[in-house]
Automatic annotation (TrEMBL):
CDD domains, per database record: MopB_3, MopB_CT_3
Designated name of the protein: Dehydrogenase
SMART domains referenced in this protein's UniProt entry, alphabetically: Molybdop_Fe4S4
UniProt organism field: Azorhizobium oxalatiphilum
Matching InterPro entries: Asp_de-COase-like_dom_sf, MoPterin_dinucl-bd_dom, Mopterin_OxRdtase, Mopterin_OxRdtase_4Fe-4S_dom, Prok_Mopterin_Oxidored, YoaE_C
Family: Belongs to the prokaryotic molybdopterin-containing oxidoreductase family.
One Pfam family in the UniProt entry: Molybdop_Fe4S4
Keywords: Iron, Iron-sulfur, Metal-binding
GO molecular function, one term: oxidoreductase activity
Keyword Transmembrane helix: no
UniProt xrefs under Gene3D superfamilies: 2.40.40.20, 3.40.50.740, ADC-like domains, Dimethylsulfoxide Reductase, domain 2, Formate dehydrogenase/DMSO reductase
Domain 4Fe-4S Mo/W bis-MGD-type span(s) in chain numbering: 9-67
Length: 697
């Protein structure tokens, strides 16, 4: 008789490292002490509540992928050819250091631009590259591509980044999910919203520009045209004032310029908004009535609505609705966008903030194409960028204005080192490619923008091959280029412990014992009942747009044209005769930006690049299901497969992305069509704001 009993997997606590507001608390199977198995959500975390997305649940597909980078490599053929040879770590690091030092000798330190983003949200592995930047006075990195329009719009009203405890969705009577496909991009929102529906009979309303899986679960689906969120918000507030549902006692205490704003809204009627949004008047009226009659209305505001040229104005307009209704006063009422402002984490040692020189220029992440092609304005009068060190991001795929980005990376005089997990489009342009660890293979700390937990992600297994951590690579380069700072001599665990103590969050030992810390502010503060974040404690219905409420190197876009009060700001790329469609490049369910598009299950479930187009629009152009279509504008052209879909307004097309560039005919990915002109007032890219033509091939 066989008495052998298979060893049970060890279950270890961790945290999801990816660029998602959920930042889930995880339980990871460790098999044979050296590889991971199934990944599950932690049931004892009150926000994750045991639920995670499918792509992270099957994370072993990424860690053990046959195409994972395992060894340092040197390019041997033309840029982009994919021709590399294996070299040692010492040779690779020496070559990287020489590339950076050569640029510094020739054009000065500002000709080196360390470039990174959110491939990991771990504070040590993501942000440690800044310590090298500050120590060497390399060009600083202006992080603009994601949050700037949303955060500037939200904080312009509230005065600080925070809001109602997101777990209060579960005790709301009306959960409004606005501008985010939570089923695909932050699944835990649905956990708490559905709980409210089951236990309280709450209604779920979803406002979006196409019929997403989230909208399909809604009791009240509200389908609008892209970039028109501000018009709908104004019509709702018009109804609140008109029907006596504005909480005047609350407004008298907590808001400024109420009378002028009410006058402004007189003409922002449901009929006015219907003509702009495409939403029928009766749906606007019914929704406005419901909001007015439901004190516990919870506005869960996403990022998607902000990725238009009027994104900051739209965000501010939506955030103003619970101020007019007074919903902030009630448990389960108010608004929530991000809790990133509540953590107050001191990253001095991680980032080298004590040696930051504010006189060193900042270069705009979103405008990397203009930077690399030598635009004098974007270079702020400084030298050209001739060397880059890239971690945690794939700008050749995810950055806007792709044709210009490609021209920039093709320069023979540009030295590029990329530290990556896979041979991405950006890695293929590199001179040196370095293999990177994944989140279970290093120690780090995370904070949840979509909730209130500070989480530890400890090293669970050794990395495969010759993969090294971001921290190890930064420290090794620092020693070769003469960069000095105490943080380079510390281990990731020491940096985490220093940061926790400096932030008055206890010690690493304490966090290891607890796994995560709940740092949610008390009810009065979270609901702004002790005052909004401005000096006078009042919500700004009339924002001061010329003073962006987030750090920026200046004002961006046509900020002087921004409307005085919440409104529909018609600065978006409206259709023209030549380009009659509005294109939104929405996130795909099985990808996260360009991450996961290399894993077999995710790629299989998404299929190839497609364009969702209304059947009547398709018929008018002789387009049938599955036809190749060219989507084009003044920036370029992309080939996609047509998919007939009646869940959009006429004249709107959707491309769920980001597929690899090589998955498209001609190697031109969807960001060929997106612009890099900055969103007012604090910068950022308008990924969902593109006029295009669609032609059958």
């Amino acid at each position: 008789m066989n008495t052998h009993v298979a060893a049970q997997p060890l279950i270890r606590a961790s945290a999801c490292p990816h660029d998602c507001p959920s930042t889930c608390a995880l339980e990871v199977e460790v098999l044979e002490g050296k590889r991971i198995g199934r990944v599950r959500g932690a049931k004892d975390n009150s926000y994750t509540a045991g639920v995670i997305c499918a792509k992270v649940a099957r994370y072993a597909e990424r860690t053990e992928h046959a195409e994972r980078l395992m060894h340092p490599m040197r390019r041997t053929g033309p840029k982009g050819s994919g021709q590399f040879e294996r070299i040692s770590w010492d040779e690779a690091l020496d070559r990287v250091a020489e590339g950076l030092l050569k640029a510094e000798r020739t054009h000065g330190a500002e000709s080196v631009w360390p470039y990174f983003y959110a491939g990991t949200m771990g504070l040590v592995m993501r942000d440690g590259i800044n310590r090298l930047t500050h120590a060497k006075k390399y060009s600083r990195f202006f992080s603009s591509i994601c949050v700037n329009p949303a955060w500037s719009g939200y904080i312009a009203g509230t005065g600080r980044l925070g809001g109602t405890d997101p777990r209060e969705m579960a005790v709301s009577d009306l959960v409004i999910i606005w501008g985010t496909n939570a089923v695909a991009t932050q699944v835990n929102v649905m956990t708490h919203a559905v709980k409210a529906r089951k236990e309280r009979g709450a209604k779920i309303a979803v406002v979006d520009v196409y019929r997403t899986p989230t909208m399909e679960q809604a009791d009240i689906p509200l389908l609008i045209r892209p970039g028109t969120d501000g018009a709908l918000a104004c019509a709702l507030m018009h109804i609140l004032f008109r029907d006596g549902r504005a909480d005047r006692a609350y407004l008298e205490r907590y808001a400024n310029d109420v009378a002028d704003f009410e006058g402004h809204l007189k003409t922002r009627t449901p009929e006015w908004a219907s003509a702009i949004t495409g939403l029928p008047v009766e749906e606007i009226e019914a929704f406005g009535k419901l909001v007015g009659e439901t004190p516990r209305s919870f506005f869960r505001i996403g990022y998607g609505l902000s990725r238009s040229r009027n994104g900051a104005v739209n965000m501010h307009a939506i955030a103003s609705i619970p101020v007019i209704s007074g919903a902030w006063q009630h448990e389960g009422g108010g608004a929530f966008h991000s809790n990133s402002g509540i953590f107050r984490t001191r990253k001095t040692m991680i980032e080298g903030l004590d040696i930051l020189d504010p006189k060193v220029r900042q270069l705009d992440q979103s405008r990397i194409g203009a930077v690399l092609t030598g635009d004098p304005e974007v270079l702020a009068g400084g030298p050209p960028v001739t060397a880059m060190l890239i971690q945690n991001t794939n700008p050749m795929s995810i950055a806007p204005d792709q044709e210009r980005v490609k021209r920039g990376f093709a320069r023979d005089d540009l030295f590029v080192a990329v530290h990556e997990q896979f041979m991405t489009e950006t890695a293929r342009q590199a001179d040196i490619v370095l293999p990177a660890t994944m989140f279970t293979e290093h120690d780090d700390i995370y904070q949840g923008g979509g909730h209130q937990h500070l989480l530890l992600g400890p090293k669970l297994v050794d990395p495969p091959g010759e993969c090294r951590t971001n921290h190890d690579v930064i420290c090794a380069i620092a020693s070769r280029v003469g960069a000095e700072h105490p943080g380079f001599a510390m281990s990731p665990r020491e940096l985490i412990d220093w940061t926790l103590n400096a932030s008055q969050r206890g010690s690493l030992e304490n966090l290891e014992a607890q796994r995560f810390l709940d740092v949610q502010p008390e009810f009065e503060s979270a609901h702004f009942l002790s005052g909004f974040g401005h000096k006078d404690g009042r919500y700004r219905l009339k924002p001061d747009w010329k003073r962006p409420p987030i750090p920026t190197p200046g004002l961006f876009g046509p900020w002087e044209q921004m409307p005085e009060f919440p409104d529909h700001w018609a600065i978006i790329e409206e259709p023209t005769e030549e380009h009659p469609f509005r294109l939104v490049t929405a996130p795909a369910r099985n990808f996260l930006n360009s991450t996961f598009n290399e894993t077999p299950t995710s790629a299989k479930r998404e299929g190839g690049p497609t364009l969702l187009i209304h059947p009547e629009d398709a018929d008018a152009r002789g387009i049938a299901e599955g036809d190749d279509v060219e989507v084009r504008n003044l920036r370029g052209a992309v080939t996609l497969k047509a998919k007939l879909f009646d869940g959009v307004r006429r004249g709107v097309v959707i491309a769920e992305q980001i597929h690899p560039n090589f998955a498209h005919q001609g190697g031109r990915g969807i960001n060929t069509l997106t612009g890099a002109d900055p969103v007012a007032p604090a910068g950022g890219a308008a990924f969902h704001d593109n006029r295009v033509d669609v032609v059958k091939l």
